[in-house]
Design goal:
The structure is a single chain. This protein is of the alpha/beta class and 449 residues long. It has a six-stranded mixed sheet, covered by helices on one side. Helix 1 runs parallel beside helix 9 and helix 4 runs antiparallel to helix 5.
């Protein structure tokens, strides 16, 4: 399963001291009790798993995130392609944790960490901790071409998804209104850069949107003539999967009418399209799915980092020299049993969160944990449109419709909240029967995200 700092307002007991105005050093926020204070930065898969794992531990937890919701990132592309509404894949953090009495939620943006004083630093205040769990995730990496971000947005948060939905649907509307055949074709051309799971899922969903959901909605254009291209610098799609499944994915994409361009490196992107060496693909919509870089957590911690900005941690996921600080998820560089870095996917973050929770629970009870973190690989899943997917569990490899049904069941199961599961299941069932997408709303305006 593929996946990817979210928050809420502070509780009533958190009060900003009047002495904050004009203060030099960031003053401390009063601690709610004398029990061990655990601060968790980020309410994604890793952070939330750590918090829930400490539900019965004698600790006081503060969850810090800059947004007020937990996002089920593996289904974000479905929002971007009008298959689901944002509320179907996101839940308020406070709602998820309302019954866990040892948790407070603070909506804030982290500016740094004082390791010596054991404080998390914000703009005008600081928060003390006895144990710190850093799970702040990752962001899109443009490999030195940050100027491409405006014309080739990525997909990491709800705002990204609704912005992409606007761009995609608006392209069909502009194609309908133009009399210029060249411009019409440019509007009906979509380029996805990167053929990992996110890339192929996006491309497949756009193809189905054009071939089925929108096919009867327009009068002047044939949406089925839309051109969807995936550009991949490597030799094949889905490089994390076995070659046989990559080949199956390529065949499924071809059936959908998606062009897969492997061994092709993007050299330029602008508002008019993409350059692949000397070749230009004119496209009104370009989407970036070619890589990620970790949040600035390694810089906050003064930690050694890998090329992707991930903090290099010990076998117990703690920061070297600071056993009270743990870094997990996309923010951490951790090697698996094959000595390769663990991938930035949801199962890794969830298992790390639960491991850190068990470790902290033992420490506060005076028990010294000894076991190192060991990742249990549960498999890879990627969908390629209606009744097409690939699944790799090591001992079992599936493609086509059996993998698609399994992909759907797994994703619905891991959604948070009964309502979310039910709504998504009903939406998918309706789309399966009618070929209709349920959230084809163009919201926002050009320049907004």
């Amino acid at each position: 399963m593929t996946s990817r700092f979210d928050g809420d307002a502070a509780g009533d007991s958190w009060r900003m001291p009047r002495s904050l105005e004009g203060a030099g050093a960031a003053p401390a926020m009063p601690a709610p009790s004398r029990r061990a204070r655990v601060v968790v930065l980020g309410a994604g898969f890793g952070g939330l798993s750590a918090v829930l794992g400490l539900a019965r531990a004698p600790v006081d937890i503060t969850v810090v995130d800059r947004r007020n919701y937990h996002l089920f990132q593996p289904l974000l592309y479905q929002v971007a392609t009008a298959g689901l509404a944002p509320s179907d894949i996101a839940s308020p953090i406070r709602g998820i944790l309302r019954r866990q009495q040892n948790v407070r939620v603070l909506m804030a943006r982290v500016r740094g960490v004082d390791l010596q004083q054991r404080r998390v630093l914000f703009d005008r205040l600081s928060l003390p901790y006895d144990y710190l769990v850093v799970a702040t995730g990752s962001r899109d990496a443009y490999f030195g071409h940050d100027d491409w971000e405006d014309v080739a947005p990525g997909l990491k948060k709800i705002d990204d998804a609704t912005d992409l939905r606007r761009r995609i649907l608006s392209a069909f509307e502009r194609a309908e209104s133009t009399d210029d055949p060249v411009e019409r074709q440019r509007q009906l051309s979509f380029v996805v850069v990167g053929a990992g799971a996110t890339g192929v899922e996006l491309a497949g969903a756009i193809a189905e949107l054009a071939r089925h959901a929108l096919a009867r909605d327009f009068r002047r254009i044939d949406t089925r003539s839309a051109r969807i291209v995936i550009v991949e610098a490597g030799p094949r799609a889905l490089p994390a999967f076995p070659e046989t499944l990559s080949a199956a994915a390529a065949r499924s994409l071809k059936v959908l009418g998606v062009e897969l361009r492997t061994g092709a490196r993007v050299t330029a992107i602008d508002a008019g399209g993409v350059m692949l060496g000397d070749e230009r693909i004119a496209a009104a919509t370009v989407i970036w799915a070619a890589g990620v870089i970790a949040s600035p957590a390694a810089k906050w911690l003064g930690a050694e980092a890998d090329r992707a900005g991930r903090a290099i941690v010990g076998p117990d996921l703690s920061l070297p020299g600071h056993p009270e600080v743990y870094v997990i998820g996309d923010t951490a560089h951790v090697r698996g049993h094959d000595d390769k870095p663990l991938p930035g996917i949801a199962p890794v973050a969830k298992q790390q969160g639960r491991y850190v929770a068990r470790r902290i629970a033992k420490l506060v009870h005076g028990v010294e944990p000894t076991a190192a973190f060991r990742y249990r690989h549960l498999g890879h899943l990627a969908t390629l449109g209606r009744r097409a997917a690939v699944a790799d569990f090591g001992f079992l490899r599936l493609s086509s419709w059996p993998a698609w049904w399994l992909w759907g069941l797994v994703h619905v199961y891991f959604l948070i909240g009964f309502r979310n599961r039910l709504v998504v299941l009903l939406d998918w069932f309706w789309a399966y029967l009618t070929f209709q997408q349920g959230s084809r709303l163009i919201t926002g305006s050009e320049g907004e995200s």
